[in-house]
Amino acid sequence: MVGRAHTPRPAPDAPTSPAKSGLPVARVTLWGLAVVVPLAFLVVFFAWPVLTLVGKGFVADGHLDLGGFGEAFSTPRTWRIVGLTLGQAVLGTAASVLLGVPGAYVLFRCRWPGRGLVRALVTVPFVLPTVVVGVAFRSLLVEGGPLGFLHLDGTFTAIVLALVFFNYTVVVRTVGGLWARLDPRAEQAARALGASSWRAFRTVTLPALAPAIASAASIVFLFCATAFGVVLVLGGLQYGTIETEIWIQTTQFLDLRTASVLSVVQLVVVAAVLLVASRTRARRERALSLGSDRASDRRLRLWGRGPDGTRSALGGDLVPFVVTAVVVVVLLATPLVNLLVRSLHVDGAWSLANYRALGSTGDRGALSVTVWDATWNSVRIALVATAIALVVGGLVALVVSRRPRRRVGRRAVATLDSLFMLPLGVSAVTVGFGFLVTLDRPLGLPVDLRTAGLLVPIAQAVVAVPLVVRTVLPVLRAIDPRLREAASTLGAAPGRVLRTVDVPLAARSLGLAIGFAFAASLGEFGATSFLARPDAATLPVAIFDLIGRPGQGNYGMALAASCVLAALTAVVMLAAEQLRGERDGGEL
Questions:
Q1: How far apart are CA 439 and CA 448, in angstroms?
Q2: What is the pTM (predicted TM-score) of this model?
Q3: What is the 3-state secondary structure (H, E, C) of 28-75?
Q4: What domains are there in the chain, each with its CATH number?
Q5: Is the pLDDT score of 152 beyond 90?
Q6: Per-residue pLDDT tens for 297-331?
Q7: 525 and 453 Cβ atoms separated by less than 8 Å
Q8: Has residue 1 got a pLDDT over 50?
Q9: Region annotation Disordered: residue ranges (predicted)?
Q10: CA gap 170, 123 in Å, rounded
């Protein structure tokens, strides 16, 4: 026994027989490709275009010139734009958190009939194209609309409401995923010691949820600060943000200098937010490891007390239920239902005229293609973009899901994770315009990507990759590493380990990742508006063009086209939710 205790064991990666002598080389090659391929994609199709465009604003006559910062920030317009951006981000984040926490409780902590369907429907607004969200709120608030008497059309309040509509599900799913796993016994012990329901929630449950709330707030702030389509449709030029200002300076004034300054400011904000999100996400994962593996669902109690004689930690399930019901019905469902109703109403009567007109190019040739052609273009491009995003994002998630033993390795993995989140916060306009500047003959290759029809799906894939990573990563991190070690010990090559261990366990998250990537590609507008040719316009670009053209017929077509795009997105996400099943993680 003593002799055996001192017998050294072979390292897990060390060859144990001649048949396995090539295994370490194969493993190094596999992981090398898994890192190099995504990094090459990020460098060529994100970092290079963005840095080139930004650099053009700071280079004059071949020399570095930082005077653009002084010129840009010496004008009141720039400070007003920065103030509006931060203001809408702060208010949108605060409202999303305040309304989302009760929703997380009702939809993830409590059990009631129809909960799964409502969860899926609550997810739809997050993946709706921003142009559709803008059109939906504008049709609701415009003069003559159901809420036109509030005179909110074209106001800052309308923008904030639309941002809450868009980001509500981020808080619900992120906080709810953790809340469903919290061990209820800690709260029950506090109640048994005499704490009131509110005190037990404030001192026990809320601190446990704090990392998830902070993580969700960071992500929502990022989305609100970089909103483009919603602000452009609802705010116009009066309530612009850094994102819309970059678009205006680039497309209308051709002022790359000011656009570059604003892009740098946005990059700084994005980097700071991603740093906060990364740290809070790490704290959240440690909290999850301390919780119960079983979901602590409990029946929704609207009246009276439960079997244990106590009421909910929120002072009764009625309050969070009412708040959630009001948000779902009034804020989420009403704009979409009104959009559908107005698309079916022509000259005061019910009619399908707006939908029949989708086979035309609009009044006075507003479009170069029909809306149905634009729909097919969107679907075709989204399929290609989804395939690219799934490969790149899947490799990133695979690498980042590993936890190296060395501190340097852990930092490298965390850095890689943060790098691939940057596309979510960098102006899509900067990416799109950067494509036009740099990809005429990339790396000296004899191909002009600007005319090859590949720029649009590549640009959409750049935006979709972070969503794939955030969806697949939690599942891969939850896999017990001993399963991989056992497969390797039995002689499985690295590729076979992935096929037999990682891929089957991550299959449901892959379905949801495909749904998110496809929906995000369908609705991408910022970069696509730069890159799509008029004869190959996508559906969001066609909708925006119809809104900008005069005529009631064009506006009616925009409403109908928005309904088509919303329905297509909803079907995709409902199918993805069915593939995922009832297992819900904290990530999107």
A1: 7
A2: 0.77
A3: HHHHHHHHHHHHHHHHHHHHHHHHHHHHHCCEECCEECCHHHHHHCCC
A4: 36-56+346-588 (1.10.3720.10), 66-298+311-343 (1.10.3720.10)
A5: no
A6: 666 666 545 444 444 444 467 888 899 999 999 99
A7: no
A8: no
A9: 1-20
A10: 8
